Amino acid sequence: MKVKVLKNITDMNDQLATRNKHMFADKGILVINVMSSPGAGKTSLLLKTIELLGNDARVGVIEGDIASSVDAEKIAATGSQAIQINTDGGCHLDANMVATAADGLELDKLDIIFIENVGNLVCPAGFQLGEAKRVVLASVPEGDDKPTKYPFMFRDTDVIVITKMDYLPLSDFNMESFRKTVLGLNPDIKIIELSVRNGQGLDEWIAWLKSNLLQRQ
After folding, report:
1. Which residue of 30, 43, 61, 183 has the lowest C-beta tally within 10 Å?
2. pTM passes above 0.90
C-alpha cells in the first residue's frame, strides 16, 4: 500500500510537470532547472548570467530555499523578475510549487526562466518541474567524488557545470577522474569548466544558453 501511495504522488507530480512544460513551451520560454549542493555557486552564476545576457534575453528566476528570500532579493536587484519559494524544510521543489510561482511572473515578458532548486544532491533529481533542460553545478571545493556518491543527479541532466575553477590549483580535485565518472554515467552530457570570479568558461556557458534560446523561437 505504501508503495502505491508513493507512486501516486510521483505520478501526480509528473502530470503537472508535463502541463507546466507545455505551458512554458507555448509561450516560447526556455526553462532551466538548476541543481547543486549548497554553496556550489548557483546564485552567483545566475547573477553573472543575467549581466552577460544583458538585452539579449529577458530573465526570470524562481528561487527555491528552505527559508529566507536572500537570493531572490539579489536577483530582483538586477531588475529581473524573481519569485521566492520557501519549502519550510522540504528538500526540493515540485511541479505544483513551480506552477504557483509561475502565476506570479509576467510570463509574456520572459525569454528564459531559471529555477534555482533547493541545495541538495538527492531529492531534486527525482522531481520533474516542467523544465526544458537540467543543469547540475559541482564546485571544485566539494571534491571530485560527487558523481560517484550521487549518480542519479549526474546521470539525469543535460549539462554539468564545474564551478569555482579558480580554486583548482589549490585543491586535489582530480578532473580526469571526475570527467571519467560523469561520462560513464552519461556519455552525451556536456561539461563546462567555469569560474565566475575569473571568467573562465563563461563564454561557453552563455553560448549554450543562446543556442537553446534560438531553438525556442
Report:
1. 183
2. yes
